[in-house]
Write the structure tokens for this entry.
Amino acid sequence: MTSDFPFQRPPVIWPEPADTTEELSSRLRKNPTLYDRYQRLDRKWKGRLSDFLTGRKSLPLTYDPFFKFIFNPDYHQDRLSDFVSSILGIQITIVEVLSMEDTLMDGESYLIMDLVARTKDGSIINVEIQKQGYDFPGERMACYASDLLLRQYIKVKKSHGHSPHDFSYRDIKPVYVIVIFEHTTPELRLENNSYIHYGKTTFDTGMELHMPERFCIISLDVFREIPYSKLKKCTQSAWLLLLSTETLKDAERLILDYPWLEPIYQEIAALRRKPEEVFDMWSEALLRMDENTLKYQVERMQAEVDKLKQDAIKSKQAAIESDAENQKLREQAKNDQARIAELERLLKEAHTV
């Protein structure tokens, strides 16, 4: 991959003229079902979709359907390998993407992950795109790594067939959990503005013992805060800029520095003439966003319920100990109990959705 064009020319992002908003509406009206879906979108998403279909913006690649469109290993196996290699800093060759329909030995399903792939040396890699950091805590990363290890363990053990005694745990290769956060939690923001974090199990004595779990966390919002001119010009920066860039002006600048990205932008642009496919991906993205938003609201309400219950207990105790504040605290406790009842009702309704 070269860093400059062999001769300077304008990058080709949109291969044909873009529609105006009026032309887009006219085109969509020819398909009543599609136009109805478009009209049902809220103002924000209708505007975002219109910006793409009229050629003003690229796709939001941090949404899972669009990310998989770009890195679909059935069509671009080398692309996914290059992306993962640049992130991990080692050469990775993806040979297959694992099915989400496999099951464990006892019949239970594996964890549902965004993208799971096996490498040439037998390692397994999971790539997760997360809009919000709160939805993917460290405990969840550990569970995902355990899931990947179990997948590999089952495959390695089965490969020995009728010779189970030939199996060795030393045959287990590393597993990698890569999580890309668009919006990170405060604990992922360090004073040195690091946007990529690598981790593995270590021992306080410095003892060297091979532990196969590997983790990589990318804070995309921290990366976006770094001025373009101060970024190191490398393949890793190019991929992260691709995930961060939506305006055509930024895309054109990016292609001038990394011309091998031009075919990707052309693939994205070609979708403007396939609105049915775009709507399907858009609908999937919105569904996932709605599910995550509901989960976040439930967690917030549950946290408020727990806090109010603790406050009510403290208020009740304080009311007993202080006659002067007795009436005021009782009123506060009464209000808290009413709020708890309302939140518990909302939680019950949310869990039934």
